[in-house]
Write a structure and sequence with these properties.
alpha+beta, 4-stranded antiparallel beta sheet, 3 helices, 12 strands
């Protein structure tokens, strides 16, 4: 009985600590966020689900004068906010040419607001990002994510990881994309 009581005390302290870290700025970002549910998203099962390192480069394709880089993001809560840095860059592995992210590829979404993914716990959702069109000769890319001065920064946000993928084959990423519909 004593152990059970101690467990409840520790659990209550954890809840109080979490509640205190959710500040007024977090509430404002969440209230203004863009909600995506299972019916809005496409999922992938061919990427290993990973809560420690949730963002993975999934596929690549061109649309007009833009290149769309699709990221797989592992979702581990029933309602989870998702942010992608405005500092994401595709780098041509051979020439060093840099292509900076423009925005989300879905016209209804903007990087100025949080994405709030609901009802997708335990799934990998696909999130497409717009970049300037890669030159035809690009064969291998590196994808980096740097903090950007205009990024949304929830209080529980981890520092942006710098490498999302190195020496990724453009041909392979384009082949993965064939037949994938990112938004329903």
């Amino acid at each position: 009985m004593k152990r059970l009581s101690m467990f409840f005390v520790v659990a209550a302290m954890a809840v109080v600590t979490f509640a205190q870290t959710f500040n007024e700025n977090d509430r404002k970002m969440f209230n203004e966020g863009q909600v995506l549910t299972e019916s809005d998203l496409q999922f992938t099962e061919d990427v290993e689900w990973n809560s420690a390192d949730p963002k993975t480069v999934y596929s690549l394709h061109d649309e007009g004068d833009e290149t769309i880089l699709t990221m797989s993001h592992s979702i581990y809560w029933d309602s989870q906010w998702v942010t992608f840095s405005k500092g994401i860059v595709i780098v041509d592995s051979e020439t060093g040419d840099r292509y900076h992210v423009r925005d989300y590829a879905d016209e209804g979404l903007t990087m100025d607001k949080l994405l709030i993914v609901k009802g997708c716990n335990g799934k990998n959702v696909l999130i497409p990002l717009k970049f300037p069109k890669l030159k035809r000769k690009v064969e291998y890319i590196d994808v980096y994510s740097y903090d950007h001065k205009d990024d949304l920064k929830p209080s529980n946000r981890k520092k942006c990881r710098t490498c999302l993928g190195e020496r990724l084959s453009v041909k392979k990423l384009r082949n993965i994309h064939k037949g994938v519909k990112v938004y329903k």
